[in-house]
Amino acid sequence: MAANNEDLFKNLVSHCKEYGFVFPSSEIYDGLSAVYDYGQYGSELKNNIRAYWWNSMTRLHENIVGIDAAIFMHPTTWKASGHVDAFNDPLIDNKDSKKRYRADVLIEEHVAKIEGKINKEVSKAKDRFGEAFNEEQFRSTNPRVLENQAKVDTINSRFKDAMDASDMSAVKQIIVDLEIVCPVSGTRNWTDVRQFNLMFSTQMGSVSEDASSLYLRPETAQGIFVNFLNVYKTGRMKVPFGIAQTGKAFRNEIVARQFIFRMREFEQMEMQYFVKPGTEMQWYEFWKTTRMKWHRSMGFSSDSYRFHDHIKLAHYANAACDIEFMFPFGFKELEGIHSRTDFDLKSHEAYSGKKLQYFDPELNESYVPYVVETSVGLDRMFLAVLSHSYCEEKLEDGSERVVLRIPSFLAPVKAAVLPLVKKDGLPEKAREIMAAIKADYLCQYDEKDSIGKRYRRQDAIGTPLCITVDHQTLEDGTVTIRHRDSMQQERVDAAKVSVIMYDLLRAPRID
Ligand code: GAP
Q1: Mutate-to-test residue for ligand 1 from 73, 198, 316, 375, highest number of ligand atoms within 8 A of CB
Q2: Residues of the chain with pLDDT > 90: what percent?
Q3: Do residues 373 and 221 touch, judged by C-beta distance below 8 A?
Q4: Which helix (H) or strand (E) holds 344?
């Protein structure tokens, strides 16, 4: 059993490999850094998360349609989008450990430590004053809190100014002034900070002289922008309307850590919402609320999520925030919500020479719509679901089990059909039940080992229901249904199994 969150996370990573959820890529060659393959259960879970997102976007919003654009795009796309010039991370090396870091992350971690001190101070006071505690007043008057808050504000504003001015020596100076040390060598022997472009490039064309350089897309969003006109015209769309898509994105991340949290090849689920200029802040708030509701529909505790406003805005945004999730290694970005203005469409207009405008029949005029984007990483959603679901439990009889309490509608395998013994006609009966449900749900038939061992195997992959066929089934047509989380069993008519499954496995309704 894990003693702390760090152990729990390590156990989760091993569990993912042992039970066919996630494997290191090309493992027989010792793997490829920050690239992973999804196994037989992992790909089912990933498909289910993707489908839930897709249906929530396209079915629940009559004015959002989905597309599937190519990964390869004309190279000018990335010039127009600003990625060639501005999709950089500031990088710094420690000369002693030879370790490479993102300078912004070193500074953010330092800020997080100071914020941790503030929060400690607040929670100590909360315990001391009990009911009478007024947090707002305490934060605005306590000298130690004020002093630390002033430090945070100064660092954030220095950092923002340095990044806005692309002044990498000023970024380094912040690291020097804050006396940040390398976590590995413990020294302050830093190189200068350099900007590093995160796009991967490759060649298209068979003859080297004719070949042109292409980028692997670092975000799926541009496939939507370049198809704005196609979808608007062919779909007879009316502003406000959205275009959604899911697909692979590639980034040459400087520091790729924490399993599938930060990968070099990953999948995004993005939606661009085209709105009338001047209404974008209202839609930005709408999408913040709507997306938070979607995350909460998973049924995880509501304090697992929080919003985090961006201090340094991307080159295309006039407002941006993250929905952060409480991963085992702390609160981290799960989804970004960005008000992208008309930056992308205007820039594609300028580079392509094509008019990318919407004709508003009510105003009787054309304009370039503004865009509010929602962008969530599928792999991060996968990690959020698994890390919240992974549970090591000690049972009443002293034994232990590992159970994945995956929301039932997302579980890779929905039910296991288990004949109690491998004789007396029970396997045949179990096969009959399996045949009746397998077209609608991914199910497993398992007759090997004791029933207890079979339950444990299903718990470990998160199967919500085990349907057991025993001798009584042959007499009265009933089966037992065993529920994964409570381990409770109920005896039901076999004919009702599919109705029970429909009720238990339906996706939640989001109002
Ligand atoms: N189109 C906007 C955009 O790409 P982003 O904040 O850079 O915005 C959106 O990325 C989401 O994509 C993030 O919130 C995260 O869930 C996911 N993501 C970004 N980089 C990732 C990486 N290296 N590995 C896994 N997921 C990543």
Answers
A1: 375
A2: 88
A3: yes
A4: helix 343-352
Backbone angles phi, psi at 323, to 5 degrees: -95, 120
Would you tell me the crossing angle of helices 40-58 and 378-389 to the nearest 10 degrees?
Answer: 110
Q: How far apart are CA 278 and CA 265, in angstroms?
A: 36
Pocket of ligand 1 (CB under 6 A): 219, 221, 251, 253, 262-263, 266, 268, 270, 333-336, 373, 375-377, 379-380
Instruction: Identify the structural domains of the chain with CATH numbers, from first to last.
Output: 1-72+213-395 (3.30.930.10), 88-197 (3.30.40.230), 413-505 (3.40.50.800)
Asked whether the whole model's pTM tops 0.85, one would answer yes
Q: Which atom from ligand 1 is nearest to the alpha carbon of 263?
A: 24
Ligand 1 atom nearest to 380, measured from its CA: 16
Counts of helices then strands in the chain (DSSP H, E): 17, 23
Which residue from 43, 25, 69, 29 is spatially nearest to 272, judged by alpha carbons?
69
In this predicted structure, what is the pLDDT of residue 196? 94
R_g (Cα) of the chain, nearest Å: 26
**276 has a pLDDT exceeding 90:** yes
Mean pLDDT value across the chain: 95
Per-residue pLDDT band for 509 (boundaries 50, 70, 90) equals confident
